[in-house]
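User: You have something folded?
Assistant:
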Amino acid sequence: MNEKNPLRIGLIGFGCVGQGFYDIVQRQPELNLAVTRIAVKTPDKPRPLPAHHFTYHADELLADPAVDVLVEVIDDAAEAFRLVSTALRQSRRVATANKAMLARHLPELVQLQAEFGGTLLYEAAVCGSIPVVRTLDQYFSHEPLHALSGIFNGSSNYVLTRMSEDGSDYAAALAEAQLQGFAETDPALDMGAFDPRSKAVLLAAHAYGVFLESDAVLNLGIEGISAADIAYAASQGQKIKVVASLSRLPSGHLTALVTPQLVGPESPLYGVEREFNAVVLDAEFAGTQFLQGRGAGGHPTGSAVLADVLGLRRGLRYQYAKQAAAPAVQLTHGLELDAYVSHPDAGVLREVLTWLELPTEALASTEAGGAYATGPVAVQQLWAWRRELRANGVFVARVGEARVTALVTEKAATGWA
């Protein structure tokens, strides 16, 4: 297209990210971008722009040939998939920030790109302002990675920071995070580690060429955490962080975990606080790389959307260069980790230890009257009891990374056997 003419953008969604992106575009006229159409769902919702700026039917933007690029930033994963997949079938250029939709449908969306010639970019879906997707897809496209880990959710990290600073309990810290706008009214996806799991799935495609199934990756959250757990970590000179980990095992298989983890001062993640996100890359030749930035918010995430829009104008496409040599996956079978397990009720925890096949002799009492235990636990046991652990308010954190206890068959290596 003629660079003298503005790139015409159709914006689907005008919440926190949509407004942040719109504001950035308006502040930088030299970029020669124009948000020409905005689609929203609710007609009577108060908005900072007059009503004539909006349409209430997103399909109108898909049908408009005058729209050069579509930006999708809504919170409905099913509707986002319908819109994005339709746009790709029309050979459109699309930027999206919807990590849950992408994590569930990425293989299909990549196939639609190949079949119809459209382009999909999604830097804003992972870690807000941190340019990790493009870094992996371009800079590390042909370099083996030993591991990739990080704090991928600012909401849970904010809660953990406030608990550590004030000695407050989980409910009070969560309420503060919600008041500050760092946690949703319904915090389940963030506090249950479903959100960082989606982001880990997306990064696996670029770091290792593997398209993981979200539901096959173990995720444990912080809903059951207490001030006693924070105090225990501090007594060990450590902090609790929700860490997403992708790593190559000695067998060459890839494993993935998203759980609370005790980290010490030697870890770059130890000092990542409040709503910040961070990514640690362990590359075979480049060594260790550390990226940190704001993981949420209108302007930080809107900045990532803008980078994708400018990339689409330049013809940028993700390469998925490692897909042809993607490793096998070992997610639960034949793996073990050292775990810290706690619950306010010692009787409940005693039963939990039988689920996880930990000896009851490992049981110890906290100063607050609760109970905890430490010891090696099979990842398969955590996987088998994950719903019961969450339903009963049991808190589980790992100490270090998973290790191999048994070789697995090719079928079991998928993690879905």
